[in-house]
Amino acid sequence: MATEPPFFEKYKAIFQSSADEKEKSTMVDVFEEIELPLIDLGHLNLGPFERRECIETMARAAAEWGFFQIVNHGIPEELLDRLNQEQVKVFQQPFGKKSEDKFLNLSAQSYRWGNPLATSLRNLSWSETLHLSLKDISKMDEYNNLSPRLPLQPAAYVVATMSLCHVSLPMCLISNHKTNGMITQEPFCLARSTIEEYAAEANVLAQRLAEHLAQNLGIRAGYFRENCSPSSCSLRMNRYPPCPYSSIKFGIVPHTDTDFLTIVSQDQVGGLQLKRNGRWVSVKPNPKALVVNIGDFYQALSNGKYKSLTHRVIANRESERYSAAYFYCPTYETVIESCSKPSLYRRFSFKEYREQIRKDVKATGDKVGLSRFLW
Ligand SMILES: O=C(O)CCC(=O)C(=O)O
Ligand SMILES: [Fe+2]
Q: For residue 349, is pLDDT > 70?
């Protein structure tokens, strides 16, 4: 059963109407590959001097690059591996299952692929994602309650579940598999606890980073703790299938992130690019490090000191790529206001910002973003 989203069928018209662009894009784009500033968070525990230096280096990277990478961040490699395994399992499901409304009992639109509003090759994303609003994760449990109704013998179900899942809280779906011409049914288990464990660790890390970055800005110590919680954040699992069409450029189209900061774990394939001083540069992947990028809200909060950089992912012709992005967001009611005067941006709530994005995307196909809130 096909697992890949039907990109070609869905975007046939775009492919056909862009023959000229196809011609042009046979030229191979070459981008400079850069290594992001590397911050060793282990230095925070060495002594007051090393700690101050580490925080200053991080703040400089946030101001000059908007991106940096971190090691000794406290999230065990073993947990990152487990998260990746869960992610692979999700995307290996038949497309028909993934695109069901209640896939994994999550809200509609949790599974997304391509770009439903794509009008040309320029705004087509060659990727599929599972977007988990963290307040929804507890709903995943309900699937356990539903599963006995699924057409599999209870005993077989238990044995299969135990052998496929390494935790006691799997979320199960039954999927059809074709083996030697025979259709068989296998349960698909997603370890909810691995996702929760990762989300909890990522939340602690994100809060620590946000607080360190706030130190030189005079932002109240409790600001992030009061306005952000695991349930206001989200986790996006991304898969970028190999893309056979040279005319397709993007795994994810250029964008900035709508949050305070994002923590990204990625494999070794590469493809992330950021726009630095007006030029696109490729980020050299470092599977031992996590990538951190500043989002729109920290740019506004820091009164433009920290940069929410436009970034994108380039589609790869040969290899699939996986990444997982943790978005550190406040609650909808949180009002974001610059930490110094005169402020570049007028104050706005997350809710207001989201609403503006929704209108702009509908009207222009683009999020527009912070420039809408300049004085
Ligand atoms: O895949 C990546 O490296 C980045 C993903 C990203 O930018 C996002 O999910 O917002
Ligand atoms: Fe992003």
A: yes
Residue 106 · residue 139 · CB < 8 Å:
yes
3-state class of 66 per DSSP?
A: coil
The atom of ligand 1 lying closest to the CA of 236 is: 9
Q: How many other C-beta atoms are found inside a 10 Å radius of the C-beta of residue 362?
A: 9
User: Of ligand 1's atoms, which has the minimum distance to the CA of residue 240?
Assistant: 1
Distance, CA of 198 to CA of 362 (rounded, Å): 33
Compute φ and ψ for 303, nearest 5 degrees.
Answer: 55, 40
What are the tens digits of pLDDT across the range 201-217? 999 999 999 999 999 89
Residue among 44, 45, 46, 47 at smallest CA distance from 57: 44
Give the whole-angstrom CA distance, residue 240 versus residue 322: 6
Q: Which of 31-40, 97-106, 235-244, 344-353 has the lowest mean pLDDT?
A: 97-106
128 contacts: CB under 8 Å, gap ≥ 6: 5, 91, 98, 111, 112, 113, 114, 238, 239, 241
> Is 332 in contact with 250 (CB distance < 8 Å)?
no
Instruction: Report how far ligand 2's centroid is from the alpha carbon of 255 (Å).
Output: 6
C-alpha 216 – ligand 2 centre gap (Å):
25
Q: Does residue 228's CB lie within 6 angstroms of at least one atom of ligand 1?
A: no
* Dihedral (CA of 358, 362, 365, 371) sign: negative
ipTM of the predicted assembly exceeds 0.95: yes
Judged on CB neighbours under 10 Å (0-12, 13-18, 19+), 186 is middle
Whose tokens are 């490729």? That residue is 282
